[in-house]
Amino acid sequence: MPTPSSVYLGVDIGGTKLAVNAIDESRKPCCPNWVEVPANSHLGPDQTVAQIVVGLRAYLDREKIALSQVASVGLDSPGPADINGRIEMSANMHPAWEGYQLRENAQKAISQAFGQSIPTSYENDCNAAALWESFAGCPECTEVMALLAPGTGLGGGIVINGKLLRGSRGMGGELGHVEIVHPWFVPGQEVPRCGCGQQYCTEAYASMAALMRLLPGALAMDKWKDHSLNQIQGEDVWRKRAYQVRGLAAKGDELCQSIFDWQSQAIGKLCRQVACTIDPTRIVIGGGFIEGGEALTTRIMGIIRETFKTLAFKKHANEVRIEVARSGDQAGCLGAALSGWQLVHGQK
Ligand SMILES: [Zn+2]
């Protein structure tokens, strides 16, 4: 049973590290910064579950939280996973992850390590982030909200009156794979396929993966063949070059700024599709895309809003708020914790 001193732990499992933070009974974050330990996911799922316990213990020690205060643990991971936290195989994963029941196995390990039964929930990472961003922006839980998070891919999540739209299989809110009509950045070139195999997903335009597919054509254009990005050489050169684009755009580089402008238009077009589908109160933009400093973020948000306004129904153009995410990379961890809070309070 929850008490005023209950603590709800959240574990954000990333590619290389896992982060732990928590919220209290009133759903306030217990601490501004998290505890981080290696995720060890390349060694297999059992090693990651062991690391979850290590991370939780380190957090409880640091924050001087007693075991008796722990009411739940919420987990999130990049997935793909189903609604019960059963992991599906994807590229570059240790084979033992295929079909692994992450939520169930983590719950067993945590309950055993802590000597008490601890309810454990699971969300995919973008859903967890959306859940937290909606709560942070509208604690009354009276909004229809979508999160769009362009980063490595383009993640999404939908929250309606404080509840995630998980869908019937946990596959709801995959907004990055909604198609848009958007001419390719390099004139005359076909739009390269998205990671999912389709051609016109918004993720194929606005993500780090898209940037890596775009740069070879862009940097071969007459106008840009002397661009400083062409001087970067060595192994995995397109990834290295792609990672420089945001910083250069922030400094006003003409090519990099025009790439960001074009990607922002793609996101504005996606906002229109989202508005037609869920009639939102708010659309929140998060992810690495908006972390290039205040000036670049202002420019990006201006283009997203402008593109949306010209395409959307009049009522949507006038009323849907398009806002910057508030919690940065903490959102996943805190959203996982909030998912556990909802589980304990019968609201999941
Ligand atoms: Zn796709």
Produce the secondary structure layout.
Blueprint (H helix, E strand, L loop, with lengths): L6 E7 L3 E8 L10 E4 L6 H19 L6 E8 L24 H13 L5 E5 H13 L6 E7 L3 E7 L2 E2 L43 H12 L17 H14 L3 H25 L3 E4 L8 H18 L2 H6 L1 E4 L6 H14 L4
Parallel strand pairs: 1-4, 4-5, 6-9, 9-10
Antiparallel strand pairs: 1-2, 2-3, 6-7, 7-8
Helix pairs in contact: 1-2, 3-9, 4-5, 5-6, 6-7
The protein binds zinc ion.
The site of zinc ion has 6 residues, from loops.
Describe the structure.
The chain is of the alpha/beta class. The protein folds into two domains: 7-130 and 329-344, ATPase, nucleotide binding domain (Nucleotidyltransferase, domain 5, 2-Layer Sandwich), CATH 3.30.420; 140-324, 2-Layer Sandwich (Nucleotidyltransferase, domain 5), CATH 3.30.420.40. It has nine helices and ten strands. It has helices at 45-63, 102-114, 125-137, 208-219, 237-250, 254-278, 294-311, 314-319, 331-344, and strands at 7-13, 17-24, 35-38, 70-77, 120-124, 144-150, 154-160, 163-164, 282-285, 321-324. The strands form two sheets. A five-stranded mixed sheet has the order 3-2-1-4-5. A five-stranded mixed sheet has the order 8-7-6-9-10, sandwiched between helices. Strand 6 and strand 7 (154-160) form a beta hairpin. Helix 1 (45-63) crosses helix 2 (102-114), helix 4 (208-219) crosses helix 5 and helix 6 (254-278) packs across helix 7 (294-311). The longest helix has 25 residues, at 254-278. The chain is globular. The two termini are 16 Å apart. The mean pLDDT is 95. The structure holds zinc ion.
